TrEMBL record:
Protein's name in the database: Outer membrane protein beta-barrel domain-containing protein
Signal sequence, start to end: 1-18
Record keywords, A-Z: Signal
Length: 225
């Protein structure tokens, strides 16, 4: 599925590049995932993001970035092998495919317009939602404080054929010629755990997860200015 999404975006980007005075590039970076659900004891670890970016110019100082990326988010939950075992931090990862539409506006220019500082914002759509233990031997462990099996964290397939979430992305950007750095906060809009299998009429597990991302993007072809 991820390969299909990447292939479709590549075709889209090439079509846009042929029709507009646009740019095409590759992006990679690091992310820090923040779980907002209060029904698990969690802490963040550093993950990574890679993908492709296509642009559509809007004006001399602004453009729309269409991005398709694959992210691996990392985190840890407190759990135990069984009810009598001692608690420990268990490493998990969450693999997602993301499609984002970001408005990028240059606020300041320096060095004959080679250097630009701007701000970007827009919606991001995240697909897939399985939190999986990194150590397969810890599948089936119980997660504190409710003693839920780690299998409950596989959100794909519970109420939806594929987990889907919407986030709002925003943050500053700095571009020098064809290299752009971006620091963005992705704030969760939808409830990440709306189809969590452990929910009941008496106990609701909710949370709008967010993450921070720093990426570097290299554009092929000319710069925006």
């Amino acid at each position: 599925m991820k390969k299909v999404l990447l292939f479709n975006f590549l075709l889209f980007a090439l079509t846009i590049h042929a029709q507009y005075d646009s740019r095409f590039g590759v992006t990679a970076g690091a992310n820090e995932y923040y779980m907002k659900g209060d029904f698990l004891f969690s802490r963040s670890n550093t993950g990574f993001t890679i993908g492709l970016v296509g642009t559509i110019p809007i004006s001399e100082n602004s453009e729309i970035l269409t991005e398709i990326t694959v992210s691996r988010h990392r985190m840890e939950f407190i759990g135990r092998e069984n009810e009598l075992a001692s608690p420990e931090w268990i490493k998990f990862h969450l693999d997602r495919s993301n499609v984002s539409f970001i408005y990028d506006y240059d606020i300041l220019h320096f060095l004959d317009d080679d250097l630009a500082i701007g701000f970007c914002a827009g919606p991001s759509f995240a697909f897939f939602g399985n939190f999986i233990p990194t150590d397969k031997s810890k599948e089936g462990y119980l997660l504190d404080p409710y003693g839920m099996d780690t299998e409950y964290m596989r959100l794909d397939g519970y109420g939806e054929t594929m987990a889907f979430n919407v986030l709002a992305a925003f943050g500053p950007s700095v571009r020098y010629v064809n290299l752009e750095g971006s620091l963005r906060y992705y704030k969760g809009i939808t409830d990440t755990y709306r189809n969590f299998p452990g929910s009941s009429p008496y106990t609701q597990f909710t949370g709008k997860d967010s993450y921070l991302s720093f990426t570097l993007t290299y554009y092929f072809g000319h710069s925006l200015d």
